[in-house]
Fold this protein.
Amino acid sequence: MKKRLLLGDEAIALGAIHAGIRGVYAYPGTPSTEITEYIQRHPLARERHLHTSWCTNEKTAVEAALGMSYAGARSLVCMKHVGLNVAADAFVNSAITGVNGGMVVVVADDPSMHSSQNEQDSRFYGKFALVVTLEPSTQQEAYDMMSYGYELSERERLPVLMRVVMRLAHSSAAVEVKDEAEDVRVLPCVKNPAGWVLLPAHSRRKYAALVECQAHLEQLASCSPYTRYEPARSSRPVGILACGIGYNYVSDAKGDGGAYNILKVSQYP
């Protein structure tokens, strides 16, 4: 392992390269733009001829990445929060069709509207689509979660949503990264018209299966390496539930932490 000083966006990008992606599809928008730009500039991405594409809009980005996934390769999609509104149709349907190669959709939210016309919490889209949502608290988690997210996506045959916020995407930290990247990952391409084509008869069957697996996804979240309980040392503690970047603020404010039970949640549902 070696340490690199990386923006949160750069940690995500490098994590995706090291996880063996075949391509990235995106529509630019702060605070997500640097993810794709970093991949485009990275020597290993150029050596591997990774496909990097700025798409017409976020919907076509999801559709292109989903096509790569159906073919068996790992793909990455990047956008800011308002872009997920544009991509909602393709994103929600991707949960019903499922995936073949791992697919991670990274959405950068912008609380307080530093460079956006509104606020939006993209975790609600993850809940609406009934997919796993990951939310890193640190740049290190952002890097590590990429490999974890792709493995989870391929194992559960579902797209994975990763939600980050501006203060993580655009701040830097020392990140321990792998000495060697995984090879570009490609699974066999399986013809599956009954699964990939959402005619009503197929959709009803696959949506029922998606709903049925929610209890399993909840169990996975409870066992996630990114879900952590920190018990208090006080006899009359206060409980705090912390998610994402909010956990950092709690950690800074708690002092020695003796008076607080803290449950850190970084995977939903």
